[in-house]
């Protein structure tokens, strides 16, 4: 499939007479796909059971007539006000016990049966009307699951559903008590109705309770999505997708993705740098107008896996956003470069959000490709350049990687549940490994942890922090033949969230048992060698495994047996660089803002810095990319 | 009117036999006014409908007999405990949904009809008893509206009143939906009862919703005040006033002031420096015992406008207070100097809070002019010196200014509703402009933004950050003939809180449209010239307006057309200094702690520093003022 | 009594066949005492009224047969889930109004009569079964009162009990109104049912209200404890004790201790350094793996007083804990050294928590002496060394001190209620005095403030910050004949929490009245002499008392009359050192990590530093102690 440019459009926001001109200009810009409808429930069904299809029919007609392919959203992220009259208890409840009210979006609990049915009904009527319409190129289910912290809910609906979920999992309260270790502190339950959600407890709840709750809410999201898929699937042949949001970890994207045909995500590089990236101030200042050089790539690689190879950017930042602590404008070139980079990672469509900046409501200061007065914003020119560039690309760009990074949502929940130290975060660990690999010039596949997965074909697999692996997962990783790096905190807990006996990591061929873990305060950074330190975390092992690296004080931090490595501490970026160079044989690290992404046929050299960088005989302009054929 | 000294006194706190001695000593100190009664509801009406006038009659008698003029407060800030039995739902509710309980003061929601009636009834009985009593020199309505964050309430009473307020404003839900842009995210309402208060929403509520709520709560305060005025006004000829609190912005003081005869405010320079001023630590350390050199003056000028020329300091800090994060004692001389400064700005009365430090309850560590053991505290001597100084002043001191600063509460709410960047605050902007003008030696009138206002007669009008202006307001400002500085963020939103089309600021004669705004992180400070930077905010314009000033990287930050200027960024203090020197022609800036305030006949040179400062051939002692006749 | 080593053990957590081996290994380690049962309610009474004694009988049998003395806990800290069905309102309520739910421990309000009775019933049945069993060496009542912030509760049960408590104290609402000064802000009550708990008020509640509430909740803890004591006492001759937690100040430990025979506390030096000690980062880094050099000693001395001479460490940190912001492992030697130090302060038993690390539930990452896989953890060897060292000690070690520090919980509540400045904390003040005395080489007795106490026999009594003293308490202190240091903030409030008239401190023989207090911002540190400063707090006095020390600017900070001193400011550590050297005649201060503790026969020289320290001709190894006979 030829990679192409899309845009998000809200016909219901604009006078109907502007639609044809908008459509024509989109096409002139080189745009091929247009997403509509995902927030329009109150216009599709203004009153319960009363549908207004006319405007939507005409909008689809205008857009498709201009040559655009339609991506139609199901509007379940924005139930109308009247839905609350039907289901007053449909709202999610926050951890302090307060219902999260109507007046923005995503005001529902995924566990609420009534609203779940209503959302599926909406899918059914949409599918009945447009399911066989060839102008619909794809369907988006709901919008940005988990955005605004909407996965964890402590509602009555969630409480009842959690009890049912536990009953199915454990079959008897006695089994649950054993699995959770509820004998501790007399927390034993006699009946399913004894079990509550793990908020507002006097001190931390049982981590097994917390982790099962997190598994439960993730399942609720997956079931919620599956319910809409089940309603739509029989009515359409068009692919189904969802648009995930950056660094949302509260549900398992692979579970949701399993029911869909394509993954997509909403990429706001500058907003994310400001609001959801831990980094040194100097780093944030350097990339203030470009975004972090690895954050987008990480998610591109992640969603390629979630989409089983098929993925899009559904919303691409087109200028300043409105929702981060600071909202600077992109440096010239970045709005185009982000699209090029996504395509280098295999994106089929890069869709800008949004066509024209809305002059009202929550996002009125969120840029579009067009200004509110219908004149072109800076993003439009860049989108056009991106479209032209994509047209000049070879039709087939197959991402190619020799390195795999395993990313596991369950591990994130496990770490959040039992952090054992302030600032100890799974995503940060995985991302620091990813960044180090990228600094060494690697192209990376991100993969889930799966029992039946064949991890063969990689030179190196990096799998940090997988808190729990079953035997088949461990086997899949260790038998792949690749160099393997696991640890820290890998396979140190059972699936029931207990410490295994014998202790983990229990890696075949590596005689090592982690007996004790330490967390360190921020600022305590034992030396490994000059300007290489570890921090935050140190494990202490027992066993005969070879020690490949020690702290200056002698404490081992890296164990090895053949190609299998176990990291027993948290390296700083410089030490990560050394480790990754050792594992990959990379002769040097790339400049701070330069990254490489390979496809089977081409090498993309991407410069996130403002200034040109010399590399390997080439000069890469600032905020630009070189696309080199691979020899 | 001869400026004079007052004091706040609580006869109900003290044994009756001490009253005559207290009154005599007040008179000996040079005090002419005494405020009483504003917290005494439980003594005036100990049980519902049972009044005890005896003590109050006698207190008024004792004080007035000694020659003191009485300011009598209505006690609505402290409803007795039994009022809650009548109106269990009268309490305000915080943003998290919790009622704010009895046990301190201001425990009521301004929107509660029942308590509003009860408070008006209390005014009526007070007025009936004392309204024609010549010993009552003025009436204070309630006490410190908004103190302790008491304007925004999310009670049932507020919810119902808000729906009525919206129905009156918009007439139909459809009109409201259009005005707010509720088609966005399907937030459309079918009925007034659909509308809730904008707290606890999943993500930010519609800014139009939030801004209308803020307008509504401001109106509730004004209506609350007006209800008491309506009850009292027919019963008395004495002037009515209210005592506002420093940097309280949640209601429109001009609206409240329109119904009153005099404005007053409660000036706690050291408490405010500690708890409600953003400033560098070195600045705070330098003025720790004096207060900020501009904070009091700003409010003096503001309340002169709110009082339509007539204003008092109702509570003047007399020593250490009890409520700020740190509570140091005033430097010797300041308790007097603050009074002198107020008079230089036109105050009619400066009233110290309080006569004798109470040895019990919440404010027992708040200093008075007298210690709890009835011996003189350091403030007493200074109050006496201030009284003596005032007696030596010419009777008529008419403040005189060539510069006007426009201050607009609606703009503050608009900025808070849609900040588009952490730390972006309207008051900070207005105050930084005020400080810069004062550093240039200017005397300033602060004025509201008003349709029918004649702004003529000023050399310079500074009007930063007025988010929305109607055509008449814009006309009034631009047609004044003065040099005018507007921006940043001026007239960029419609009254319905949408982006206008064509874009603002739409200043007659200045061809400039702001197309895009950026917020920057703290610490990012683009250079303009050596040691001059902008920060936080940058607007990008379109149009033919002359660029008067650019950043070093070429981006315009000041536009000009004749005498009209538009500032498109947020200057730091040094750059503000340059801009203000350009606009005023001031040859230099005053020393950091020195300020000038002119009246028609005199120039007050006020030194907030501890050490003497040489200025224009004079030496101004530390914590003191020179009063020079104007040539 | 020969000091000895104990351990905490949870037979209900382990398969019964492991019990004999565990018991044998405990004995081999030199352990003599084993605590069991304190969290086992759900196993003792699995269903209401249905008791299962078999397992507990057998556990006691196995342990006692091996030669271990049993400490049996009452399980009231962990009511089973079914207890909530009996008493749905038994949960404590947090300050925001949310019930604190089941799912961890300590989920009860001390004021709830029903659960109080249920807990006493459990004591009765335990006492009936084991009260005369000679194998039970002691009983522990409940567990860690106040842990997880569980003293202050805003439940309905607390509200009703508070009204009763006030009615008993004041007899009439009028008396309460007078005592609290409720005329201020019309806060007067007509009836007991008018009074609410002091949470969620609009601004701060009346401090007298808050302080009475704090006294009330402390009484609730004492009554709660006394109720269990009353149930158990007739049924057993074994001593009763409670295990207090470090730096828990919300209830008066002396009140609870009065009903018990022995005090004990739970000593987690590294956890406490991380989570409840204010100290400079460099200090925290230096002692990261050892704990603060004075924090344990302070509590040892405190609980020796609470236990009226008899005290234990009931839980001693054995390795990394799981609950602090960072959880590093102890430096080698510390697990032993902490036990030695406790014994130097007079501990009868030092009991490690816990025998084997639990592989499940909340504390699964809390180390034990054994790893979860039943192999020895590093703590086991150190515990054995400690046991061997203790066996070599002379049987009788009587702590001996020439200096007394008065510690008063009421003062802590008074300071918290009326801080008059951010960061102004009573514990910090007392602890800074204690540290200074220890740096000067002193051994210290910590004592309560008591009317009938004979403080004779000390060379020096340090009594900082006692907010209120009655005449007999003042007499006891000043008539002791010792050098006495009082202040700052001593006797400045009446028992009703008003400012006395005449003003305090009213120390016999010292003509000084504190007229005004100032709090300073962090970072403001007036010089006293080179590198000696005061900060945060300054009092201003009146009177003829000799000034012993002044700030460089002349303001007095230390007053004196003969042997009586009053400190009028908050000294930094260096100034504290000077003051203490003056008062004690100590020629120098000890090195930062070295401390001395004397018994009648021996001097313990304890080195908290990692490196050896030379002292008085001896070399003290790092993390070790010398035990020298006293000449
Ligand atoms: Zn280093
Ligand atoms: Zn500079
Ligand atoms: Zn110094």
TrEMBL record, chains A, B, C:
Active site per the UniProt annotation: 144, 315
Positions of the Beta-galactosidase trimerisation domain: 401-584
Enzyme Commission number, as recorded: 3.2.1.23
Entries under Gene3D superfamilies matching the protein: 3.40.50.880, Glycosidases
Domain Glycoside hydrolase family 42 N-terminal: 8-391
Reaction equations catalysed: Hydrolysis of terminal non-reducing beta-D-galactose residues in beta-D-galactosides
GO molecular function: beta-galactosidase activity; metal ion binding
Keyword Repressor found: no
GO cellular component: beta-galactosidase complex
Positions bound to substrate: 105, 143, 323
Binding positions for Zn(2+) per the UniProt entry: 109
A GO BP annotation: carbohydrate metabolic process
Homology family: Belongs to the glycosyl hydrolase 42 family.
Stated name of the protein: Beta-galactosidase
Species lineage: Bacteria, Pseudomonadati, Pseudomonadota, Alphaproteobacteria, Rhodobacterales
């Amino acid at each position: 499939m030829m990679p192409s440019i899309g845009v998000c459009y809200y016909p219901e926001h604009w006078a109907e007479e502007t639609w044809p001109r908008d459509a024509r200009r989109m096409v002139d810009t080189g745009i091929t796909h247009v997403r509509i409808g995902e927030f329009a429930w109150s216009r599709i069904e203004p009153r319960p059971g009363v549908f207004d299809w006319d405007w939507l029919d005409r909008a689809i007609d205008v857009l498709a007539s201009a040559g655009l392919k339609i991506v139609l959203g199901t509007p379940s992220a924005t139930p109308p006000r009247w839905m609350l009259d039907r289901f007053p208890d449909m709202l999610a409840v926050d951890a302090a016990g307060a219902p999260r009210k109507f007046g923005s979006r995503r005001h529902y609990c995924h566990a609420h049966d009534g609203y779940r049915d209503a959302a599926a009904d909406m899918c059914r009527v949409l599918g009945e009307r447009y399911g066989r319409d060839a102008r619909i190129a794809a369907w988006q289910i709901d919008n940005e699951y988990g955005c605004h912290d909407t996965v964890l809910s402590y509602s009555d609906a969630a409480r009842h559903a959690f009890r049912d979920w536990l009953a199915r999992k454990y079959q008897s309260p006695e089994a649950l008590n054993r699995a959770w270790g509820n004998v501790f502190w007399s927390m034993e339950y006699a009946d399913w109705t004894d079990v509550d959600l793990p908020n507002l407890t006097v001190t931390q709840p049982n981590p097994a309770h917390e982790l099962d709750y997190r598994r439960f809410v993730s399942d609720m999201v997956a079931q919620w999505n599956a319910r809409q898929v089940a309603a739509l699937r029989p009515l359409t042949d068009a692919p189904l997708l969802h648009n995930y949001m950056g660094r949302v970890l509260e549900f398992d994207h692979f579970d949701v993705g399993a029911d869909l045909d394509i993954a997509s995500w909403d990429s706001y590089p500058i907003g994310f740098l400001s609001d959801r990236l831990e980094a040194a101030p100097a780093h944030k200042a350097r990339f203030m107008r470009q975004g972090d050089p690895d954050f987008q790539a990480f998610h591109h690689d992640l969603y390629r896996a979630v989409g089983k190879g098929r993925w899009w950017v559904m919303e691409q930042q087109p200028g300043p956003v409105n929702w981060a602590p600071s909202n600077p404008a992109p440096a010239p070139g970045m709005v185009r470069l982000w699209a090029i980079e996504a395509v280098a990672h295999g994106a089929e469509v890069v869709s800008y959000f949004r066509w024209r900046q809305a002059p009202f409501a929550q996002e009125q200061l969120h840029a579009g490709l067009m200004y509110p007065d219908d004149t072109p914003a800076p993003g439009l020119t860049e989108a056009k350049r991106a479209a032209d560039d994509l047209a000049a690309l070879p039709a087939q760009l197959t991402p190619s990687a020799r390195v795999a990074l395993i990313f596991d949502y369950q591990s994130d929940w496990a770490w959040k549940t039992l952090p054992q130290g302030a600032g100890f975060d799974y995503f940060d660990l995985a991302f620091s490994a990813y960044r180090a690999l990228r600094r060494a010039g690697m192209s990376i596949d991100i993969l889930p942890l799966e029992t039946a997965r064949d991890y063969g074909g990689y030179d190196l697999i990096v799998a940090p922090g997988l808190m729990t692996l079953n035997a088949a997962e461990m086997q899949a990783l260790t038998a792949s033949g690749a160099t393997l790096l696991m640890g820290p905190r890998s396979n140190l807990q059972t699936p029931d969230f207990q410490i295994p006996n014998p202790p983990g990591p229990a890696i075949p061929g590596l005689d090592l048992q982690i007996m004790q873990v330490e967390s360190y305060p921020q600022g305590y950074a034992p030396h490994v060698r000059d300007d290489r330190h570890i921090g935050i975390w140190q494990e202490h092992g027992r066993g005969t495994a070879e020690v490949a690296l020690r702290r200056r004080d002698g404490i081992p931090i890296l164990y090895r047996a053949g190609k299998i490595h176990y990291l027993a501490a948290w390296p700083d970026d410089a030490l990560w660089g050394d480790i990754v160079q050792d594992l990959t044989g990379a002769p040097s690290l790339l400049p701070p803002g330069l990254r490489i992404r390979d496809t089977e046929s081409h090498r993309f050299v991407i410069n996130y810095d403002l200034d040109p960088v010399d590399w390997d005989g080439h000069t890469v302009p600032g905020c630009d990319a070189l696309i080199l054929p691979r020899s």
